[in-house]
Specification:
The chain is of the alpha+beta class. The chain is built from 10 helices and 21 strands. α1 links the parallel β1 and β2.
């Protein structure tokens, strides 16, 4: 009998998992309605920095080739600046890239288009789930319409406010950062040149991500009061603040999009699996965006879970605890390391305690001076 997988959540991670399970019948349920309007020509205000590992996964799924290459910007160099003059630099090997900057909306559209072309995947949008169940015998989801969907495994890919996690009573820890991330796109006088830049400042962490042409995207993670102030600026004043914060190295700037805002929080799920259920992506972990690795962790969750399901023995069901535990074990170290690093960096740069200023800048300088340390950090970020 063909295994049946229920994926709750039709975002990029959930769709990627559905595409990665050709030996199963997959039903994706998503509360958001079907998009009826074409994507605008303007660049999406939300962009993602995809690691080489994620790009390889998307290529395996036949999704990467469905993206418009003219709207993707490779990152071949990364420059990180401390608030005391310290500096850290990474460069990709010749011909390679550290990451690729991709529009979230277009990536989601390409993944959904691929899923829709696969005979083993059924995507149901505009379907609000009102109940879930999972145990050693199987899993189910009940929709607002009254439809009940039966399966062998329920996957929660429904974000940091996961309804699957809540309704099944899966324990988790959550801590607000007291910060918000502002994202926006800008036209620049000077092209970014395939370089991503990041400043650790007294008023938060500011990242500049290259876009094609003379454009870039920013993510400014700042304390709530500072985020309120930035959000309240008009377009000219915000562009001036962003240019000034980066030392005007790309010249004058002009706001080229709306400004979006996202609250930041840390979420940890010690046991993201149970009989008949597994959590992936932000439902299983939420990290600070300062390393840009949240979505990459989610894609690697999907890849690992698909591998665990495909590699099970003939006597094992996809929802057997032994199967989902293999997935959880494979992902534990990578997720824990990224949460530890991003949370620790945020705390170090957010604190005003004596000695922290010198310590954080000394640390950046130490890593810059040791090629093996830079390479170790780069390897983890590129997974």
């Amino acid at each position: 009998m063909t295994p049946r997988i229920i994926v709750a959540g039709g975002g990029p991670v959930g769709m990627a998992l559905a595409c990665a399970l050709p030996g199963c019948e997959v039903r994706v349920i998503e509360a958001a309605p079907v998009r009826t309007q074409p994507l605008p020509e303007e660049f999406d205000v939300r962009v993602l920095a995809l690691s080489p590992g994620t790009r390889a996964f998307l290529r395996e799924l036949g999704v990467w080739e469905g993206l418009d290459a003219d709207r993707i910007a490779p990152v071949r160099r990364m420059e990180v600046f401390g608030d005391g003059g310290a500096r850290l630099e990474f460069s990709a090997r010749p011909g390679a890239a550290l990451a690729w900057i991709v529009e979230a909306g277009r990536l989601g559209g390409a993944l959904e288009a691929r899923a829709g072309a696969l005979s083993h995947v059924v995507v149901t949008r505009g379907a609000k789930a009102v109940a879930f169940g999972a145990d050693a015998q199987g899993a189910w989801a009940e929709l607002e319409s009254g439809e009940r969907i039966e399966g062998d495994l329920l996957v929660g890919a429904d974000g940091p406010d996961s309804k699957v996690r809540a309704l099944l009573g899966i324990p988790f820890e959550e801590r607000p950062y007291g910060e918000a991330a502002l994202v926006a796109n800008f036209e620049t006088e000077v092209a970014a040149g395939e370089v991503a830049r990041q400043w650790f400042r007294a008023d938060g962490v500011l990242a500049w991500l290259p876009l094609p042409g003379r454009r870039m995207s920013i993510v400014w993670s700042a304390p709530i009061a500072r985020a309120d102030g930035l959000e309240g600026l008009d377009a000219l004043a915000l562009a001036e603040q962003v240019a000034e914060a980066g030392g005007r190295i790309l010249g004058a700037m002009r706001l080229d999009s709306a400004v979006a805002r996202f609250p930041l929080r840390w979420v940890r799920v010690a046991r993201p699996v149970a009989p008949g259920v597994a959590l992936v992506g932000d439902a299983a972990h939420a990290v600070h965006p300062l390393a840009g690795q949240g979505v990459n962790l989610g894609f690697q969750d999907a890849r690992a879970l698909a591998r665990a399901i495909a590699g099970r023995s003939p006597l094992e069901r996809p929802g057997d605890l032994r199967v989902v535990r293999r997935y959880a074990r494979e992902r534990r170290e990578d997720v824990a390391a990224m949460q530890f690093a991003t949370d620790g960096l945020d705390r170090l740069f957010a604190t005003g305690k004596p000695g922290a200023y010198a310590l954080r800048n000394l640390g950046l300088g130490w890593v810059q001076a040791l090629p093996w340390a830079r390479n170790a950090l780069a390897r983890r970020a590129m997974r």
